[in-house]
Amino acid sequence: MAGLAITRKRKVAQFLSDQTPNGHDSTTRNGKATLNGKADWGEEQDYERLVRKGKKKSEKQGPQRLPIKTPEGRIVQLAADENDTQEPDSDDDDNILEDGESIDSEGDSDEEMREPEPVKPKKSERQRILEAKEELANIASSVNEEPEENYQMLRKLQELFDSESSTTIKKLILITQVSIFRDIIPGYRIRPLTAEELAIKVTSDIRKLRNFEQSLVSNYKTYVDTLGRLSRAVEGKLGPVAISCACTLLETVPHFNFRQELLKIVVERLSSRIIDDSFVKCRNTLEEFFRQDDSGTGSLEAVRMIVKMLKAKDYNVDESVLNTFLSLRLLTELNVKASYDAIDEPTQKMKKKDRIPLTKKEKKARKEKKLVDAQMKEADAVVVYEEREKNQSETLKTVFLTYFRILKEKKPALTGATLEGLAKFAHLINVEFFADILAALRELVEDAQKEVEEEEEDVDGNNNELTQRERNLRREALLCIVSAFSLLADQANEAKGLVNIDLSFFTTYLYSVLLLLSLSPTIELSSKSLHLADPSSSEPVEIPSSKVNKATEIEMLLRSLDVVFFKAPRGTGEISSTRVAAFTKRLSMAALQLPEKSCVTLLTSLQNLSKKHSRKVHPLFVSEDRVGDGTYDPYIDTPELSNALAGGAVFEHALLANHYSPKVREQSKMVLKSAASSR
């Protein structure tokens, strides 16, 4: 230790001896101070004068908080509070050069030292759907429990739908909304409040109810508008869901506001030629809507929309759309006829002496009560009979005008449906329209006859196409016959001035197609029948795909025979014995070619014919009573010219007595027995 002290003293003494008396260095080199001939001292002074780099921002902020670990496993450094941060040093001379220029710190160093923000992990689609289901279920349950308190949730649902990007979650929101509206919509129609009603002071309960009703109508309108926009979107994934929701609302709450908007969505979908699940859903909804409509106002609106759509599409729609008219309640409610035995007497007013005197206060109270009762009737949707009859009359008029227009323009795709509709509503048609309808039906039958004649002459044509076309024409002609006779069957009293109407044209055509119908291979088939195609045909006969009101050909034949011989109107005159005998003979011939079930039903109709016109058909079954000259011509298509009573005994029943089916044999014996025993 003593040696170290001595050495230190020597160095200090040597340093002092080298300096001059005025304090300057003894030797200089190039203007720099030297120590023992070296420039060590000057280099140290220059290093001391160099500019120090400023502290980083993170260092100037003062003390930091301790890092934490997130649930995802990331370590995050938290920033200190403003109160905990210290004031930066006031000595900023280190950041300034001698010439006064400041040095900016490098931007890259700040970005490198800055802590990266934690990135939130993305949720999977399945997790988002599960969370959306839970949230929608909570909203739906809260609204259904207390709708007057939580009606603000309806707006929240619409906002969620507008902000959501997932198609699946949007579908869930639409379904949730329709379920909520279906449960909370009241049983009456909500009208807007007038200025006088808004100016009146009401209690808190009434104000609360008004707020709920107005908010419900506003949100419901927004929802219906959204359904309409989605249903019209081309290639939209939400279109089928929107149409299904609209159908659900139309079925469950048809009395509520914005019914026309819902009907517009359904009718627009029916205007398409593409038949899919949405089309069938709309069609079934419309039919159910017609059946459940009590007042007739909704049915009238829907029928007018359908007719407007048919005109816009030039009637190029599926025939099942026109068949929805058959679900109207006109068939069961509008055919009420007046009684011929009694009349409805008007209500007599109470005599003045029987009236109870009332004070002014009591009269005012009674007047107010009547006003309240009238409002309650309107709110409770009480159907007035006069109003319903008026609506149904307007609906019937619109339907008939549509049918007449289709018949005049001869739209082949809708002719069959139109004739079925006329046959259904024939008893409701006004007598003034009979002449025009019968003329249109006769034109259709004449067209069918011309087509059959052309098919017989065209030997090079395709047999399958001819068979298909011939079958459709026969069906339309049978419908014409049923419609023509049904027009007058239930209107006998109103048709007294139409005694000169001759329907023999339709009867003659029915007689001419009996043999062709008996040879038809599809006489027992309809669109609902499950059958195999003909293996020997390259292009098999196709049964129409429509499943609405499609009867088989044998059913149409039996209906025609029923209206001609058993329900003939009074104005058509009595059926001649020659015509009845010709029909009996040809029906017996047709029974030989028919299948078992059709043969039994036709023989049953023949038995009823022989019972009703026993004297006219008796000579055919008993040879001793046969009168006439000449021979029977089975190939002529006019019943009066066939000469059936001359020599046309019904020997076909002798062949039917040996039929393989015991039911046919038994029914044939019943025909012979009833015809021979009756005089």
UniProtKB/TrEMBL annotation:
Predominantly, its location class is nucleus
Which intervals of the chain are annotated as region Disordered?
1-128
Keyword list (alphabetical) reads: Coiled coil, Nucleus, Ribosome biogenesis
Q: Where does this protein have compositionally biased stretches of type Basic and acidic residues?
A: 115-128
Q: Does the keyword NAD apply?
A: no
| Cell compartments where the protein resides | Nucleus, Nucleolus
Q: Where would one find coiled-coil regions in this protein? A: 431-472
GO CC aspect terms: nucleolus
**Biased composition, Polar residues: where in the chain?**
16-33
Q: Show where the Nucleolar complex-associated protein 3 N-terminal domain sits.
A: 131-223
GO BP annotations listed? DNA replication initiation; ribosome biogenesis
Which stretches does UniProt call biased (Acidic residues)? 81-114
Q: In this protein, which residues make up the domain named CCAAT-binding factor?
A: 477-666
Q: What would be an example GO MF term here?
A: chromatin binding
Q: Give the similarity note.
A: Belongs to the CBF/MAK21 family.
Task: Describe the function of this protein.
Answer: Required for synthesis of 60S ribosomal subunits and the transport of pre-ribosomes from the nucleoplasm to the cytoplasm.
Q: What protein is this chain from? A: Nucleolar complex-associated protein 3
- From which organism does this entry originate? Orbilia ellipsospora
